[in-house]
Design a protein that fits this description.
It is found in: Cell membrane. InterPro entries: MFS (IPR011701), MFS_dom (IPR020846), MFS_trans_sf (IPR036259). The chain is about 70% helix and about 0% strand. The chain is mainly alpha-helical. A two-stranded antiparallel ribbon has the order 1-2. Strand 1 and strand 2 form a beta hairpin.
C-alpha cells in the first residue's frame, strides 16, 4: 500500500519535480518561446497605429480599439487561465491558450473591416496567459536549483519579444503587407503549440479531486477589470470628467467590492484573497504595479522622442524602422541580465533581486535626463532601465510562488501578471496626459515639448524608487532560514486528512489562512495533534 502524502495533510502540496528522463533545457526553451510570442503580439500593431485609420477608413479614436481590445481580453482571461491551469493542468491550459493566439492571428490577417480586426486582436489577447502559466509550470517540472534562473529567463522572454517584434513589425509595415504580420504570428502560434505538446511534460495538478471553478468570481473580476481599464485607457479621449469615465470608474469600485465579498465567502474562490493579503504576496503585487508603470513609461517616451523631427531642437529624427532597430539592444538586455538575476535570486533571495532591479531602473531614468541628445546615448540609458526591469520581472514570480501553495501557483502568478498590466495601463494614462498637456506648435503640428519628455523620465525615476522602497518592506526569508520541520514519524497517529480540513483546500478555506500555510507549519501542526 502506498504511503499517505503527509505533505498534503499539512496543507503543503507535493512537489513532483522533474522525472528521470526530463531535461530542463528544452522545457525552458519552449516556454521561453511562448513568452516571446506573447510579447510579439503586444508590439505587433505599434507600427500600424498611424495607418489603421486609412486602412479601415475610420477615425484614430476608433482605430485605437485595436490596442484596447487586446488589453481588455488579456486582463480578463489571464487570471481565468491561471486558475484553470491549477485545476486541470498547466500544460493543458498552455495548449488551450495557443488556440486563440492562432485563431486571432488568422482573423486579423483576413480582416477587411475594423470590427473584424478588433475581434482578432481580442482573440490574441485571450492567449496571453502563456507567460504566467509557463512560469508556474516550472515549479512543477524543474529541480529547485534550476528554478530561479529558469524563472528569470522566462520573464526576460518578454523583453526579447519586444526587441524582436518592433523592428520586425516595422520592416513588414514599411516594405510589405501588414497582413503578413498576422500570418507569421499564426504560424508561430502553431509551432509553439506543437513544441509544448512534444516537449513539455504534463504534471497532475495537486489536490485536484473535488475542486471547482468559481464562475461567479470569474465574471465579477472580468466585469470590474473591463470597467476599470476602459476608464483608464479611454479617459483621455472621453474626458476624465465625462459621465462615461466617471460612471465606469464608479462601477469598477462597486463591482470589485461585491466581488471581494463573494470571494471571501466562497470555498474555492477565483482569487484567494486571504493568500493575496499575506504581506509577502500583497507587497510584491504592489511592487509589480509600480514596476509595470516604470517599464512602460520608457516604451511610451523613447520611441516618440526618437521619431520627432530634428527641427524641433530635441527630436532625433529617426524613422520607424530605425527606431525599432535602435530599441532592440534595450530589449535584449533583459535576456542578458536574466542569468545574473537568477543566480542572485538563488544566493541572496528574490527580495534582494527585486530591490536591485528598482534601483537600476531609477538609475537608468536618471541617466536618460543627461543622455537625450543622441540616439546611441539614449539607447544606453534604456539598456540600463531594461536591465533593471529584467531583474525585477525575474524576482517577482519567485516571491509569489514561495508564499503560496503549489495548487495555487498559476492563479497567483496570473494575478501578479494582471497587476503589472494595470501598472502599464496607468502608465499610459499618466504619460499620455503629460505629453498632451506640455506641448508646442511647430510647422502646424502640436508636439510634446522637451520638458514633457524630461518630466516623463523623472516620473519613471520616482516610480522606480517607490518600487525599491516597497520591496524593502516585503517580509521575505530565505528557505534555509525557516525552522526545520519535525520528522514525519513523530506525528501523532491521530493526525489524518480529516483532522485538517483546510489542508485539502489550501488557504482558500473560509476560515482564512491557517498556520499550515506558513513555512513552519509542520512543527506547529504536529504540536497541536500530539
Amino acid at each position: 500500500m502506498a504511503a499517505p502524502d503527509h505533505g498534503a495533510e499539512r496543507g503543503r502540496d507535493p512537489a513532483p519535480g522533474p522525472g528521470p528522463e526530463q531535461r530542463p533545457g528544452p522545457i525552458i526553451g519552449v516556454l521561453a518561446l511562448g513568452g516571446i510570442l506573447a510579447a510579439v503580439m503586444q508590439t505587433l500593431v505599434v507600427p500600424l497605429i498611424g495607418d489603421l485609420p486609412r486602412i479601415f477608413n475610420t477615425s484614430a479614436s476608433n482605430a485605437s480599439w485595436v490596442v484596447t481590445a487586446t488589453l481588455l481580453s488579456a486582463a480578463v482571461t489571464t487570471p481565468i487561465a491561471g486558475r484553470l491551469g491549477d485545476l486541470h493542468g498547466k500544460r493543458r491550459m498552455l495548449l488551450v491558450s495557443t488556440v486563440p493566439l492562432t485563431a486571432g492571428s488568422v482573423v486579423a490577417a483576413v480582416a477587411t473591416e475594423l470590427p473584424t480586426m478588433i475581434a482578432g486582436r481580442g482573440l490574441q489577447g485571450m492567449g496571453m496567459g502563456v507567460v504566467p502559466l509557463g512560469i508556474s509550470a516550472l515549479r512543477d517540472l524543474l529541480p529547485p536549483e534550476r528554478l530561479g534562473t529558469a524563472i528569470a529567463l522566462i520573464s526576460a522572454s518578454l523583453g526579447i519579444g519586444g526587441a524582436l517584434g518592433l523592428p520586425f513589425a516595422s520592416a513588414i509595415a514599411e516594405y510589405g503587407s501588414w497582413r503578413t504580420l498576422f500570418w507569421v504570428t499564426a504560424g508561430l502560434s502553431l509551432l509553439v503549440a506543437v513544441l509544448i505538446k512534444l516537449i513539455v511534460p504534463a504534471a497532475e495538478p495537486p489536490h485536484r479531486t473535488g475542486r471547482r471553478f468559481d464562475h461567479v468570481g470569474a465574471v465579477g473580476l472580468g466585469a470590474a477589470l473591463v470597467a476599470l481599464l476602459l476608464a483608464v485607457s479611454k479617459g483621455a479621449d472621453w474626458g476624465w470628467g465625462s459621465a462615461a469615465t466617471l460612471g465606469l470608474s464608479a462601477a469598477a469600485v462597486l463591482v470589485l467590492l461585491l466581488w471581494g465579498w463573494w470571494e471571501l465567502r466562497h470555498h474555492e474562490p477565483m482569487v484567494d484573497l486571504r493568500a493575496t493579503a499575506r504581506p509577502q504576496v500583497l507587497l510584491t503585487n504592489a511592487a509589480s504595479i509600480v514596476v509595470g508603470f516604470a517599464m512602460y513609461a520608457s516604451a511610451l517616451i523613447v520611441p516618440q522622442l526618437m521619431q520627432l523631427p530634428e527641427e524641433t531642437g530635441y527630436g532625433l529624427g529617426r524613422s520607424m524602422m530605425e527606431m525599432g532597430l535602435l530599441m532592440a539592444p534595450a530589449g535584449l538586455m533583459m535576456m542578458l541580465v536574466a542569468p545574473v538575476g537568477g543566480r542572485l535570486t538563488t544566493t541572496s533571495g528574490p527580495k534582494v533581486t527585486l530591490f536591485l532591479g528598482g534601483v537600476v531602473i531609477a538609475a537608468g531614468y536618471g541617466l536618460s535626463l543627461f543622455l537625450m541628445d543622441a540616439a546611441w546615448t539614449l539607447v544606453l540609458a534604456m539598456c540600463v532601465v531594461n536591465g533593471g526591469v529584467g531583474l525585477a520581472y525575474g524576482a517577482m514570480p519567485a516571491l509569489i510562488m514561495s508564499a503560496v501553495p503549489q495548487s495555487r501557483t498559476a492563479a497567483a502568478n496570473s494575478f501578479n501578471t494582471l497587476m503589472r498590466s494595470i501598472g502599464t495601463s496607468v502608465s499610459a494614462a499618466v504619460v499620455g496626459a503629460v505629453m498632451s498637456q506640455m506641448t508646442v506648435t511647430t510647422g502646424g503640428f502640436t508636439l510634446p515639448t522637451e520638458d514633457a519628455f524630461r518630466t516623463g523620465m523623472l516620473i519613471g525615476c520616482g516610480v522606480a524608487v517607490v518600487a525599491a522602497l516597497i520591496t524593502l518592506t516585503i517580509p521575505y526569508r530565505k528557505p534555509d532560514e525557516h525552522p526545520a520541520a519535525t520528522p514525519l514519524t513523530q506525528t501523532s497517529p491521530s493526525t489524518s486528512p480529516s483532522t485538517s480540513p483546510s489542508a485539502s483546500s489550501g488557504p482558500s478555506a473560509s476560515s482564512g489562512p491557517s498556520p499550515s500555510s506558513s513555512p513552519t507549519s509542520p512543527v506547529s501542526q504536529e504540536k497541536s495533534t500530539s
